[in-house]
Amino acid sequence: MKNATVGEKERRWDAAAKVKGKANFTDDFPILNCLHAKILRSTIAHGRVVTYDITEAAQMPDVIKIVLPEDLPQNQYATAGHPYAMLEAKRDIEDRLMLNRNVRVYGEEIAAVVAKTELAAEKALAKIKVTYEEYPVYLTPQEAMAPDARRIHEERDNVIANTNVGFGDVEAGLAAADFVVKEQFSTGIQQHAHMEKQVAVAFRNDDQRWVCISSTQIPHICRRIIGQALGIPWSQIRVKKPFIGGGFGNKQDVTIEPLTVALSMLCGGRPVKINLTREESLANTRTRHAIDYDIAIGLKSDGTITAIDFGVLSNQGGYASHGHAIGGKGGTFINSLYTTENLRYAAKTIYTNIAAAGAMRGYGIPQVMYALESVIDDCAEKIGMDPIEFRIKNGRPEGYLNPLSKIQQFNFKVNDCLQKGRVAFDYDRKLQESLQYKNGAKRRGVGVASFSYGSGTYPFGLEVSGARLILIQDGSFKLMLGATEIGQGSDTTFSQMAAETLGVSYDKIIRDAMTDTDIDPFDTGAYASRQSYITGFAVRECAEKMKNQILTRASEMYDIRPEYMDIENNQIVYAHNSQVIVSLADFALASFYDMQHGRAIVAESSVNIHHNSYATGCTFAEVEVDVQTGRVTLLSCMNVHDSGKIINPLLAGGQVEGGMAMGVAFGLSEGLRYSAAGKPLNNNLLDYKIPTMMDLPDFDHEFVESVDPLGPYGNKSLGENPLCSPAPAIRNAVKNATGVAINQIPLATQAVFEAMKKAGVIED
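Above: the chain's sequence. Below: its structure in token form.
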């Protein structure tokens, strides 16, 4: 059976997909008793599978099925978790198959084994023999753009997109400058490393539809992508998301769900589970884009910026995923921060043969802020100006109408953050004290960096969200949302919002961690720091409708006009003096069972938000650099945030400190490495350097709190914002300590040592 494939009778897709009869599974049963699938991954980074030999694997004990690419539908689909676009030109690039003979990354999904146990599936994988035709491997955009480079996807160029945005005359602005600062910057390949790996279970339900239980951030979008990949109506898919252990954007891509459902289909609807290993999750899912920047900034002697010119090369990896949406978005946020009459942001996104880059917390802003805030610091140094004063001098004013996004920057308080942080961090004292450490073996310095961030994706993306409230007989409320809790505390915040608007205590709101596309209103999911802002409008509108219905029903039951009543502290009261009319619990019971008025009260809303608010902030960092080894120790770090009204201070503080830790790791230690052949070298938690509690100082944070005029409760974004500015603040602190500007992160010990040696700080 050399080069054998699965038997024709067993692998016919149509027959497997039309299995009749009911599967006797409860919703919980498949997780406890299911078949296990493992993915066979390529051992080359670029090429094509010529032959498979599955003879030995098929004879292994407990093997149920071996699946090759041709056993599955050949529908190319996009994996990015963006809402569906009605205009075809705006849709994500459809360049994926569930299994593929064409190899574009090391670890490509080229086959799968379904077995009774995970161990049996792993043993069978090891018995499959594969022969390849190998092609050249391109690790960098520069290699993939070379004139003689082979197309990674035959149907399209290696340059996925090439855009140029801006205004004014950049060449004239640079020519009019007294100084022109030109620099190049590069960022590393960060991985999300969420605690829970990608895992999915799929089975045929007793209604003959397909259920996928998944650790996804985007259940409603996930359903659509599964349907597209399988070529079946979206209504035939039901996605359920339990409480999951993090995502950070990696689970805003649909990675294993279509294959999991497809394998269940091939196994007659039996439950099938795919549970990636940590090594697979790190190497074969998604990463943060590595981006190269070529920058020129023109300056007058008084510190005025005459022009900003950014050239951008974004390393996409082997598949499009979120593609140019990350590398292409930076110009808007550069322009939101700094005043200039001349701006150019020219960006290219390039296919290469490393792991596909996708959404990751910050969605491209940590990269662009690293480059921008580093060069801004160097500009201040060039003209001998205090870096904080330089930022404040050139900052955009509140109310600025950003021509690149068409968003008016109301309540834009980055300068307030800088001024508050200067005092709270004790910046001037630490800067002065660092002078006594400039010549020793261990040198100290301080640095600062700013950022801005949106509260959702409008006007570039759809912002729809829904909410439903059901009054329960005891006066409690069931809150149903399509918004997704992934450990960030959104369910707590939404429950607070609903309770405040209704006039009841927090404990009266019941919110499930499970999101179910059959039951919960449509929402595009957890990404873009959008949920408390966008879904907040849906919750508020829904709660207002519920409150109005309750008061209208109470008016009928108690013969009091509704405008004379209100709800306070779980009681229906007179609005003018808070005198209790009836408890909400007694009202609810009567409302359900009263012979004349009894009927259920349900409220629902769906909003489409057509505005956005920019949140801002900054990071202050103090470092110690060992010039004999290159080791950078972060001594203290503070973030100051302008996020409008803070809904839950405890959760907000947790978000800030967690984001700071991720931003520090981005700047100091994290980065996937590849061999020249494209093989991942450190896709495990021993070699991929995530800082632990012992590696980090106690973080500090402050808020410049205000009421945003456009936020549903005066709030703006906060989830991703905290990691946007720590990396450049640390880089600037290292420069302040050593006099050496290092323009490539992470600032790992070896890299810092080599940079200082090259600069002559360390002598041979």
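The mean pLDDT is 95.
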